[in-house]
């Protein structure tokens, strides 16, 4: 069996880390199993779906390295869904209902007031031809519900949550078609999963009840129910939900505004909510190799942006020059400068500021002119190299008696205009003798 999975975002907003976590676990499993990862754009919401959001989803996934083997839009497949709806109607599994939203809400409130579950009463199945005609004259348009085959208990061995069991009598017949004739998520999703041979459906635990209902729709359409894996929900640090509609923790913002590395996001989301420690990775390969359903917890996973900050810095500190040399943020700096600056980076875009220590201009901080002048006279002759710093500071220590912070801080401030930064030994030859001399003299260089 060839494993086939899908990521099915709606292009109604920017995708956030919760969406990407779903995409990532699907992608990792597919790649580990040598299977296929399909990108399906669920754009049946005609009012809110846009081409701009569809393209942004693809941009975000590409940036993260999550390539897809096939992609399609549900809006291009309406004839398929119409045919499935026609079959279900003919088989008596899809029936018209004429209650308004107000009437349905009133029914729910009455049942709740009676201490009963707010399950739809199937009154629409009792409508006579005359009653239906009267509704039509009123101008009412029906919504269509899928008739669950009851009594029934749906059970499966969830790859994350373990044994699952749902009594369908506790659920309402789901609405599959709205009054305006548009489809809700459920029917198109099942039709697509059948046709594309999806073998595993991997998504948030909030869809577990939907999965139970969809099992009967798969059967009614002659399809095989895929295996299910329902992951714990991802929330913000304070337990708040993540909403793509309002751009919360959107991937675009982390890419464009925050300047995070894609592997910082992948490294965190792949392990978040699992028993495996989060580690910084510079490629997806180790995450593919180590993917394991059994490592995921059933508890809610919390996303803290600070964890991204830490991972991003660690990843940059591990990143080789060849991996980043052509990126625009680098500004064409040399390998030697990259290796000198790399331990101080938290974002790649910080390279430009740190490179200024070498390229200038730097405004020296001279707290003690006499000390700076003495240091200048002790600067080693000839071309500076990585041994020059130790030789120089040793000579200054012997001549002035300065040591520790009193020795190193004034030199750093005079040479870089800062009281912290990269190691001075490799920085010195990169700055060069001329700039070094000028800065020790208090000149901007």
Number of domains: 4
β-strand amount: 5-15%
**CATH fold node name of the largest domain:** Rossmann fold
Q: CATH H-level name of the largest domain... which superfamily?
A: HUPs
Rg is 31 Å
Low-confidence stretches: none
Q: What's the tally of helices? A: 19
Can you describe what's shown?
- There is one protein chain.
- This protein is an alpha/beta fold and 445 residues long.
- It contains 19 helices and 12 strands.
- Helix 1 crosses helix 9, helix 6 packs across helix 7 (208-220) and helix 9 (262-271) crosses helix 11.
- The radius of gyration is 31 Å and the shape is elongated.
- It has a 3-stranded parallel beta sheet with strand order 1-2-3. Strands 4-5-8 form a 3-stranded antiparallel beta sheet.
- It has 4 domains: 1-72 and 186-318, Rossmann fold; 80-177, Glutamyl-tRNA Synthetase, domain 3; 322-358, no CATH class; 360-440, Arc Repressor Mutant, subunit A, CATH 1.10.10.350.
Key words describing this protein structure:
alpha/beta; Rossmann fold; Glutamyl-tRNA Synthetase, domain 3; 3-stranded parallel beta sheet; 3-stranded antiparallel beta sheet; elongated; EC 6.1.1.17; aa-tRNA-synth_I_CS; ATP-binding; aa-tRNA-synth_I_codon-bd_sub2
Give a short synopsis of this structure.
With 445 residues, the chain is an alpha/beta fold. It has helices spanning 17-32, 51-64, 78-90, 101-113, 129-138, 186-195, 208-220, 251-257, 262-271, 285-290, 305-318, 321-324, 335-341, 351-359, 369-377, 388-400, 405-416, 424-431, 433-440; strands at 4-7, 36-41, 70-73, 94-97, 143-146, 153-158, 162-167, 175-177, 200-204, 227-231, 234-236, 301-303. It contains 19 helices and 12 strands.
């Amino acid at each position: 069996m060839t494993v086939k999975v899908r990521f099915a975002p709606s292009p109604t907003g920017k995708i956030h880390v919760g969406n990407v976590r779903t995409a990532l676990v699907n992608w990792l499993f597919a790649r580990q199993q040598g299977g296929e990862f399909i990108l399906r754009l669920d754009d049946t919401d005609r009012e809110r779906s846009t081409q701009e959001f569809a393209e942004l989803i693809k941009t975000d996934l590409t940036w993260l390295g999550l390539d897809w083997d096939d992609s399609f839009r549900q809006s291009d497949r309406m004839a398929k869904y119409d045919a499935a709806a026609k079959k279900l109607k003919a088989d008596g599994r899809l029936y018209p209902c004429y209650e308004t939203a107000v009437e349905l809400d009133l029914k729910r409130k009455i049942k709740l007031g009676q201490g009963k579950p707010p399950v739809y009463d199937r009154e629409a199945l009792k409508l006579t031809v005359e009653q239906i005609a009267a509704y039509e004259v009123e101008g009412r348009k029906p919504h269509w519900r899928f008739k669950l085959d009851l009594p029934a208990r749906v059970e499966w061995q969830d790859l994350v949550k373990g044994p699952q069991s749902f009594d369908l009598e506790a659920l309402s017949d789901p609405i599959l078609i709205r009054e305006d004739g548009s489809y809700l998520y459920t029917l198109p999703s099942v039709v697509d999963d059948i046709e594309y041979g999806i073998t595993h459906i991997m998504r948030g635990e909030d869809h577990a009840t939907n999965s139970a209902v969809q099992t009967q729709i798969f059967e009614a359409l002659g399809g095989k129910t895929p295996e299910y894996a329902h992951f714990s929900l991802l929330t913000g640090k304070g337990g708040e939900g993540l909403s793509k509609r309002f751009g919360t923790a959107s991937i675009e913002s982390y890419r464009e505004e925050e300047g995070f590395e894609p592997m910082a996001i992948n490294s965190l989301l792949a392990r978040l909510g699992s028993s495996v420690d989060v580690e910084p990775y510079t490629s997806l390969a180790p995450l593919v190799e180590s993917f394991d359903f059994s490592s995921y917890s059933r508890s809610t996973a919390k996303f803290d942006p600070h964890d991204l900050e830490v991972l991003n810095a660690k990843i940059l500190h591990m990143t080789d020059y060849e991996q980043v040399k052509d990126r625009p943020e680098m500004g064409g700096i040399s390998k030697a400068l990259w290796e000198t600056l790399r331990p101080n980076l938290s974002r790649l875009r910080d390279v430009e500021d740190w490179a200024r220590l070498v390229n200038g201009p730097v405004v020296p901080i001279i707290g003690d002119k006499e000390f700076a002048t003495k240091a200048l006279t002790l600067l080693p002759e000839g071309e500076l190299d990585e041994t020059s710093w130790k030789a120089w500071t040793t000579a200054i220590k012997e001549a002035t008696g300065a040591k520790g912070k009193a020795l190193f801080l004034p030199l750093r401030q005079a040479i870089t205009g800062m009281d912290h930064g990269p190691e001075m030994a490799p920085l010195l030859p990169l700055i060069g003798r001329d700039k070094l001399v000028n800065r020790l003299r208090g000149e901007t260089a």
